[in-house]
Amino acid sequence: MATISCGIDFGTTNSSAALVDEHGVRVLDLDPGNDNPKSLPSLLYLARDGEQIVGRSAANVFIERNVDREVIVRQVDLGVHIEGYVGGEGDNDYGNVPRKDSENVREAVRAHAMMEVNSPGRLFQSLKTSLRHKVFKGTEVFGVEYQIEELVAIILRRIKAAIDKAAGQPVDSAVFGRPVRFSKRAEENEVAERRLETAARLAGFNRVSFFYEPVGACVEYAMTTAERQRLMVVDIGGGTFDVCIMEFGGARDAAERLAESRILAVSGVPVAGDAIDREISRVKVFPCLGSRSRYGPSVLPVPQYLFNNMLDWQNLYKLNTEETINWLIAMEVSSNEPDAIRMLRALIQRNYGYPLAREVEAAKKRLSEMDTTTISLHRDDIQLEEPIERVEFAHIIEDMLLDMRTTIEDAETAAQVKPADIDYVLTTGGTSLIPAVRQMLVDRYGEAKLHERDTFTSVAKGLAIVSQFA
Ligand SMILES: Nc1ncnc2c1ncn2[C@@H]1O[C@H](COP(=O)(O)OP(=O)(O)OP(=O)(O)O)[C@@H](O)[C@H]1O
Ligand SMILES: [Mg+2]
């Protein structure tokens, strides 16, 4: 009997898996509740009673149970001492952290954390990004300490269950994808891969190997033809932008074609869909919530740390303290934009951070299809209607497009090729659907060379092909 193995693409936003057995390679259904069942949103909801919900339902349950609900945040003594700064002025640009250059006195202080005491559950998003953060070892959820590896393993267990079911037996060997760079820092890259491996083992995969995600996508395409080719893959997802350049010989047989292939270069940068969403929020949404307003007799600018905190909606609850809310109420009266400040307060108090983040993302996606759209959210005191045009959006992400272009140039330089030396440029990943991103590629390589591969499953399929020979 043929050995059974699989390829798993654990994505920042979506995950997918493909199985290879005597019937060949097939991409599996992972989430019947999702628009595309082959793609499992990498979301995890942990309820207070220990219930674990993964995928599209995690988002639905969070909105049902956690949104439009008064949040009560309390300072909780963590029972440990940490080194702290006392004295010195806070730096508001960085969320009131002490200035590094100020004359602070350091001493051991008792650690406290802001905890949401009445939360029915917590939603985790973009866990893959947290793998690289050395400081994010884990988190306490309703009295239970979860390491980051365990949180990721919960999602991977769900994927493994689907694989085992499709295979009709436990499959313990898997090739996992990894981005070329989890992080710009080398040591964080290592930490992230090690943690992903631990998570895979916790989920029950005993034989785990890693392959670059864009290489997976490249192999997937290369197996559809017997041409001698030099291919470039541009894979742009939620967390990372990855490029690879590979050469394939003329062999038709998969094993031979792989054996003859050569990776000429890989490059990557952790800038993709999530970072784009944050930039849209910063430029288009936050001004509607008063980020540029002024208040009080001295006409002071609203402190930016409020908005820095909101760049990740998962931190929004930390602003819901009595102190901040009272201060926002006072600020509203003396502000030149009282409606905006009222909206900001409603957003924080009623926990609308996630619906807003989803709306920003949905508007971004609409702009891949239409020239103009509106970011809108209407709940209670929140009446947000902000038009955004495709041209303006392209301008907002200009710096990121530059980062992406540099990453492509790095790959060409490392591979010692010019655009004309590349036969096809394959695109995959949700963010590659943005017209400005595509245009950048068209400008460099010409329309005819661009091939769109399956946005959400090409990496997993390629990894599964590789897994036969791992
Ligand atoms: N039509 C679209 N237009 C623009 N962006 C889109 C579109 N569809 C999805 N996206 C974005 O693509 C990203 C998700 O893509 P994908 O599923 O390929 O990422 P991922 O594989 O989970 O992430 P990564 O590979 O970085 O770990 C999200 O940021 C999403 O907002
Ligand atoms: Mg991906």
Structure overview:
By secondary structure, the chain is an alpha+beta fold. Among the domains are: 73-117, no CATH class; 225-272 and 397-452, ATPase, nucleotide binding domain (Nucleotidyltransferase, domain 5); 274-390, no CATH class. Helix content is 37%, strand content 28%. The protein contains 15 helices and 24 strands. The protein has helices at residues 56-66, 127-130, 148-167, 186-202, 213-222, 254-260, 273-285, 305-310, 322-334, 338-349, 353-366, 390-396, 398-415, 435-445, 458-467, and strands at 5-9, 14-21, 24-27, 40-41, 44-47, 52-54, 73-86, 90-91, 97-98, 105-116, 121-124, 138-141, 144-147, 173-178, 207-212, 229-236, 241-248, 262-269, 294-295, 300-301, 372-379, 382-389, 424-428, 450-452. Strands 1, 2, 3, 4, 14 and 15 form a six-stranded mixed sheet that branches. A five-stranded mixed sheet has the order 18-17-16-23-24, sandwiched between helices. Strands 6-5-11 form a three-stranded antiparallel sheet, sandwiched between helices. A hairpin with a 2-residue loop joins strand 12 and strand 13 (144-147). Helix 3 (148-167) packs across helix 4, helix 5 crosses helix 15 and helix 9 runs antiparallel to helix 10. The longest helix is centred in the middle third of the chain and has 20 residues, at 148-167. It is globular, with a radius of gyration of 24 Å. The model is unreliable at 84-105 (pLDDT under 50). It binds adenosine-5'-triphosphate (ATP) and magnesium ion. The site of magnesium ion has 7 residues, from loops.
